[in-house]
DNA sequence: GCCGTTTTCGGCCCGACTGTTTTCAGTCG
């Protein structure tokens, strides 16, 4: 194992990934002769950024086995972990206008443009660069017309013009709006959202729309798209594609037109991810095929072999197609080659919700209102009301007396409705030392116990949460990392340690489906699934509308390659009872201080 | 730089759009 001089948190991965990203930019600046080093460091940066655990935990052999990381970059990583610096980074920094490299990340700026300006105007800082741009010095250079300078200025403005990435939930709604808008255009045969939205990434930068139409209708559709009421600005406008920024919200929408015959290949191309496509196209080439948005072709005679459907591209290669959520080049192509693509969980597999708040704490509705809503709108077999416990004062958490009262009320409600639909439960607070704020005596009387951290976000919470896992009555850890996308980073937590502890103690981990939480996120859920930890998708509902978030949780589970068997709330309640009993019998779980009333449960093998 | 159904050399996805030319390089997704 590489010397651990750094902290164990993922911060180290981010720092190293940033260094590699900067090195890739420096190679990009140097020019075409370093084009492939640029690509190599760009890829290495991305790989390190998405590692599930700290790079310090990997042995040199494990590092070298990572995709896109070979002998040389392994040595560089080792140098960084041991000394904290990279000699080649320092060397490159002297050779390139380091302060200006970020400019290459602005739309319309590439290395050649930057190099010409740097060499003829001798600018060194970003400020000097902008001044040269605005003063008109730059458009005196050969090859820099007024149009290009204006595009550059716009590029700088655009840097701030488009707001931050959208939450997936908001992007899904916006995508539907744009889709309806395009569908209303004469000549449009089919519309579909592609890109990261179709892959259901947790946040979305811009919205990619694909439209099928006849060639003779292209011009009128492009005109419709670029001159609509909610268009803020047109970025690009050609015969087959156009990009706009909406006036509100200020989000970019890219449109691509295609004939119906090319629908499948275009949808595959436009869905990506970039990495998935590059990998697939490289393999296709090695097998004598060429893939583009126009189909799959034989390299030897140029004959088109398919492309009307997405499956054409994969099956012509002898591969198996996989759902869009898997297309991130994280090993899915190997499964595709081997015909071992998993059958991912679907929304319809979900049998209940194990994380629901009522007006007994900070939810808005009574248990009865929740029951009626779910029986009308959802095909669930059970739900658990899991209100907060007393330490969550802001959420009006329940004390012991209220918990027992609520149990009575829920049992009476089930009886009145003639069902056994609502289970009793709680979201119990994990205190700073890992103890719970409700006794085991009370917890043992509930059907389901979520445990969660709601305080001391500035501490390392690994040991605290693991201790909660060791309680025999804790069924699941809710929103395990505590992050709120765009508002609050995850607290310090060794996620691998937690996943190992969950496995050891038989505790489930939650995929919290709230749009700003999505916690566990896809990579962590993937690691937990691989290690055999059971996952729960909980909506953490506080209103009746919140139950719709289940769709988001299922998206994460699919991005983590989960099958129904990996998700506890796609199983029957009997099977959930078996899961609980297995935990209570587990020798790694501290002995319960009260005896548990046992009943005869049967386990139904799937 | 990486990688291997092209495996230790030689290739590395592929096509649309823009600006400035006048046939294409640079850039983007």
Overview of this protein structure:
This protein has 606 residues and is an alpha/beta fold. It has helices at 11-30, 35-49, 60-64, 71-83, 87-95, 111-121, 126-135, 146-161, 168-183, 195-198, 218-226, 263-271, 274-286, 310-316, 332-338, 367-377, 400-417, 440-443, 462-469, 495-505, 522-530, 550-559, 573-585; strands spanning 166-167, 188-193, 203-204, 207-213, 231-237, 241-246, 252-258, 289-292, 295-298, 304-306, 352-356, 382-388, 422-429, 448-452, 476-477, 508-512, 535-538. A seven-stranded parallel sheet has the order 11-12-13-14-15-16-17. A five-stranded mixed sheet has the order 2-4-7-6-5, sandwiched between helices. It has a three-stranded antiparallel sheet with strand order 8-9-10. Helix 1 runs antiparallel to helix 2. The longest helix is centred in the first third of the chain and has 20 residues, at 11-30. It is globular and about 80 Å long. Residues 1-8 and 592-606 have low confidence and may be disordered. The chain binds one DNA strand of 29 nucleotides through helix 2, helix 4, helix 6, helix 8 and helix 13.
């Amino acid at each position: 194992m590489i010397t651990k001089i750094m902290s164990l948190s993922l911060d180290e991965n981010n720092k190293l990934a940033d260094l590699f990203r900067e090195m890739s930019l420096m190679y990009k600046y140097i020019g075409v002769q370093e084009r492939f080093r640029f690509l190599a460091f760009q890829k290495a940066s991305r790989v390190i950024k998405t590692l599930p655990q700290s790079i310090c935990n990997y042995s040199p052999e494990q590092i070298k086995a990572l995709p896109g990381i070979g002998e040389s970059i392994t040595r560089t990583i080792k140098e960084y972990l041991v000394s904290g610096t990279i000699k080649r980074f320092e060397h490159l920094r002297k050779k390139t206008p380091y302060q200006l490299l970020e400019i290459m990340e602005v739309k319309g700026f590439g290395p050649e443009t930057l190099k010409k300006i740097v060499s003829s105007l001798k600018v060194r800082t970003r400020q000097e660069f902008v001044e040269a741009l605005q003063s008109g010095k730059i458009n005196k250079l050969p090859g820099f017309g007024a149009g290009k300078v204006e595009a550059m200025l716009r590029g700088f403005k655009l840097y701030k013009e488009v707001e931050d990435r959208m939450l997936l939930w908001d992007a899904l709604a916006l995508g539907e709006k744009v889709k309806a808008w395009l569908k209303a255009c004469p000549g449009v045969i089919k519309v579909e959202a592609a890109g990261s939205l179709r892959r259901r990434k947790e946040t979305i930068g811009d919205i990619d729309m694909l439209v099928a139409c006849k060639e003779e209708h292209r011009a009128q559709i492009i005109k419709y798209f670029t001159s609509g009421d909610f268009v803020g600005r047109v970025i690009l406008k050609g015969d087959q594609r156009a990009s706009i920024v909406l006036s509100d919200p200020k989000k970019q929408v890219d449109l691509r037109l295609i004939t119906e015959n090319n629908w499948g290949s275009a949808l595959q191309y436009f869905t990506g991810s970039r990495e998935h496509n590059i990998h697939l196209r490289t393999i296709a080439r090695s097998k004598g095929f060429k893939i583009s948005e126009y189909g799959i072709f034989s390299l030897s005679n140029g004959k088109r072999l398919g492309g009307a459907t997405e499956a054409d591209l994969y099956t012509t290669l002898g591969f198996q197609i996989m759902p869009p959520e898997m297309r991130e080049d994280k090993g899915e192509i190997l499964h595709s080659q081997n015909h071992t693509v998993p059958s991912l969980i679907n929304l319809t597999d979900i049998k209940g919700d194990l994380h629901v708040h009522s007006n007994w704490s900070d939810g808005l509705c009574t248990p009865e209102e929740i029951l009626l809503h779910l029986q009308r709108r959802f095909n669930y077999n059970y739900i658990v009301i899991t209100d907060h416990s007393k330490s969550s004062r802001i959420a009006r958490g329940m004390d012991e007396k209220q918990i027992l009262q609520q149990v009575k009320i829920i049992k009476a409600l089930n009886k009145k409705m003639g069902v056994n639909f609502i289970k009793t439960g709680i979201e119990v607070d994990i205190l700073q030392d890992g103890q719970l704020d409700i006794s085991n005596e009370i917890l043992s009387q509930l059907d389901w116990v979520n445990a969660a951290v709601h305080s001391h976000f500035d501490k390392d919470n690994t040991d605290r949460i693991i201790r909660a896992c060791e309680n025999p009555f804790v069924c699941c850890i809710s929103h395990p990392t505590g992050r709120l996308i765009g508002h609050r980073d995850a607290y310090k937590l060794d996620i691998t340690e937690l996943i190992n502890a969950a496995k050891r103690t038989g505790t489930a981990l939650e995929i919290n489906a709230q749009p700003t939480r999505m916690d566990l996120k896809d990579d962590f859920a993937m690691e937990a699934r691989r290690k055999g930890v059971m996952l729960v998708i909980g909506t953490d509902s506080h209103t009746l509308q919140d139950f719709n978030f289940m769709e988001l949780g299922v998206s994460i589970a699919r991005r983590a390659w989960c099958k129904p068997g990996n998700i506890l709330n796609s199983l029957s309640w009997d099977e959930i009872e078996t899961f609980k009993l297995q935990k209570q019998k587990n020798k790694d779980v501290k002995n319960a201080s009260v005896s548990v009333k046992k009943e005869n449960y049967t386990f139904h093998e799937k």
